[in-house]
From TrEMBL:
InterPro entries: DedA_domain, VTT_dom. The keyword 4Fe-4S does not apply. The chain crosses the membrane at residues 12-30, 37-61, 103-124, 164-190. It is found in: Cell membrane. One of its GO terms (cellular component) is plasma membrane. The lineage of its organism: Bacteria, Pseudomonadati, Pseudomonadota, Alphaproteobacteria, Rhodobacterales. This is Membrane protein DedA, SNARE-associated domain. The keyword Membrane applies.
Amino acid sequence: MTEFFFELVARWGLVIVALSAYFSCLAVPVPTSAVMLAGGAFAAAGDLVLWQVISVAYVSALAGDQTGFQLGRLGGGWLTKRLVSKPKRSALYARAQHAVGKWGGVAVFFSTWAVAPLGPWVNFAAGAAGYGRLSFTILDALGEAIWVSAYVALGYAFGSNLEALATLLADWGGLLTAVVVAALAAIALVQLGRKR
């Protein structure tokens, strides 16, 4: 499947980078990380321009996050009811709601890059919870800068071996998510212990 998206980037360039970054932030299952790696690799080969790949991916990701936030704000109750019928998505949304309720801006920031699979759901949950638009935008922009820059730069640096890199990063992403969740749980336990 990754090869398919590499071919799309080769053919359509920045359009695919933009669409994948936007729709992945709305919980559409698109391998955006692989697309950004491919964009970086094509920039290294001279087929695309590096600053354009980074800019398009960044602006599209921000637009997707803002759309998700606004959808949560306008239709939070409807969204919650709709997700109840889909257990896997309902579980992700419940985790996102818990994260936003407990951690607020920290959840927004880390969900854009460190716990990216939860990111779209945090966007919806933050909007539904009435989280401040300015705070959301600032923290989201900082987190997306890390995510986009890291993946495009890795694609640029290791473009000759994208398949292996995409596989490694998929595994690494799961590990990073587990480490972040474990660290947050440890912090919560320490705070709980101090209160008692």
